[in-house]
Write the structure tokens for this entry.
Amino acid sequence: MEELEEISQDRDLRRIAELKDKYIRDQKNGHIGWFEEGKLNKQIEIVKELLKTNMPIEKISQVTKLEKEKIIELKKK
């Protein structure tokens, strides 16, 4: 109970909790799909640019959080 009181008194923590709650509700209602798709498309663009610089696949995976297999697939294209 003390933790809840602490969060409700801290403006930043309260805002984070509200945003997290909204994200969860939106995800359940299917409102987040377009955002996630756009995020993935941006990741793919970034991966393609990093591949052009000959950055190692392992490093690209660490930076973008994209699976190595997906990066290898993109490299083949």
Observations:
- DSSP finds five helices and no strands in the chain.
